Amino acid sequence: MTTREPEFPPVPQKMARTAAAGPDMADDTVMVDAHTPATGLSTMPPEIIDVILEFLIPQPPEIGETRPVAYSQLMVDEPWFDFTRCRRGLRSLCLVSRRLGEMARPSLYKNVAILDEAAMLLFFRTLCSKPHYGLWTRYVSCHLTLTENSVIREVRELLPKYLPTFAPAPETGALITAARHFLQMMNQFFPSMVLSEGDFDHVPQALLCFILMFLAKVETVLLQVPISDDQPEYDVLCAQIEGVQDLFRDEPEAIPFQNIRTLLLQGDPELAAQVEDDDCECDMPDTWGAQPRRYSSLFASFPNLTTLEVSSDDGVWCLAPEEFSFLPMDDKPPPPPFMPNIRHIYLHNSVAYPGDLHHLLRNAPQLETLYMAPRGDGALKEMIDDGSSSEHPESLNIALANHAKNLRNLDVSWEDIWGFECLVGPEGRLPSIAEMTSLRTLCVQLALLYGKPSAVLETPLVDLLPPNLVELALEDWWWSNLELLQTLPDWDTQAKVRHYQSQHLYRTTAVRTLTEFARDVRTRMRDLKKVVLLVKIPWTWVLEGAVSLDFHFDVVKSVFLAQGVEFSVKCDEV
């Protein structure tokens, strides 16, 4: 039999970001010659093939990764390496025979990454002609900033090539009908649409909206969003998704987006890398990043959304920019929460300060998990350094007390909040944590519990923690260590020894505090199972060639063990 060309040429001849992204490259099934004896996978029992296919389902990299380079240049330990290899294997299986194609294609479509403009158009073409393919997808990610000029221009240049090849399925449902009308409109108006006049600006957003509508069972969606005011936000995409219900008013059972539980907003990582580059000659903004509040309509349009994950956010977590102020709030009633159903929020590379998290907690009243890893790029914010240690009305401590009744998992940290201590709580502490009876896992810096290192012995650690913890991670970090952290890579052996010797008193007090906590823990915290000490400055505890990290904690570990609690100490760098 003759073979039909697949949607994409063989992977090695293409950039990985096209080949890895092409979920429709198994549209056509390649039949083996009728005279060729069936061997190998074609003769295996389907149960064994299913196990093999399960191992080949590609797992996408974590949020915040840039798109892959050329397929042949990817190294084994790079984030996209396994993803591209797994997709290549599944694609090859789809082209072996009709039987293997039918078995492998659902695995090929389960996790889809759109890595360039051609992949987005080809994926949309496949879904138009074979809508049932979209029912296999559970994860989809778009690694294009849709309002970026280069993306808009590339889509404009590709459409003349691909528009004539679209052949929508002969169905009469609302979605296929709408897609058919969209393609007819594009064919009619495309020749007169002028790129330089903005006629084409919204087309990439419309394409992605249609793709999401076809993926009726998708559970996780990653959108790459702008981090600069030079690129407009996705107002059109949000409005289109918000209006989808009207499109399906005669088919309410077919309304899309019902299975989306996780939304990942990825601040453009390529642009972020340029801004963060020390050698960048560009004008760096004081504060830059993704603006999650601008996507509040998406949170409402995805009725079962429970998890929000954001990379490189700008730290503003209130609906109106003027509401973000370090002055006391006026008498106006606050707007209603714009994340009323979100239960889990993860912030990566964030510039959110304690006052920002106050707004976040207020806008997510059902929140159960809050994780925040700081960007640490010295983003400028208005300073509050009036010499007062009184608590600010928008402090994180007040928010934890008043807006975190359901919080079960808390992990927040900063490198330096000098001048912002009043936005943490009284004297830069979080005393409300001790009253959070719903909290089960906690990762917290010692500075947020005690305020300053000299206070380590003043209050027993057990009095500063909630009673129902199951897992606890204590980060050995104080704001005064920031300068040490910045110079750490340049330390020679003598500098490390000098620092170790200067920390003798601190080590003694810290170990004593941990030992007393271990003795008290079982009577005060009956559910605690695991304690971890996270060390940020390794040379506080380590003396190369003489003292290991665990040396100081043998007694602490044994006391915890006697109480049935696992204790360990970990270090960022040794």
TrEMBL record:
Gene3D superfamilies per the UniProt record, alphabetical: Ribonuclease Inhibitor
Domain of life, per lineage: Eukaryota
Region span, Disordered: 1-23
InterPro entries from the UniProt entry: LRR_dom_sf (IPR032675)
Name by which UniProt lists this protein: F-box domain-containing protein
Organism of derivation: Thermothelomyces thermophilus (strain ATCC 42464 / BCRC 31852 / DSM 1799)
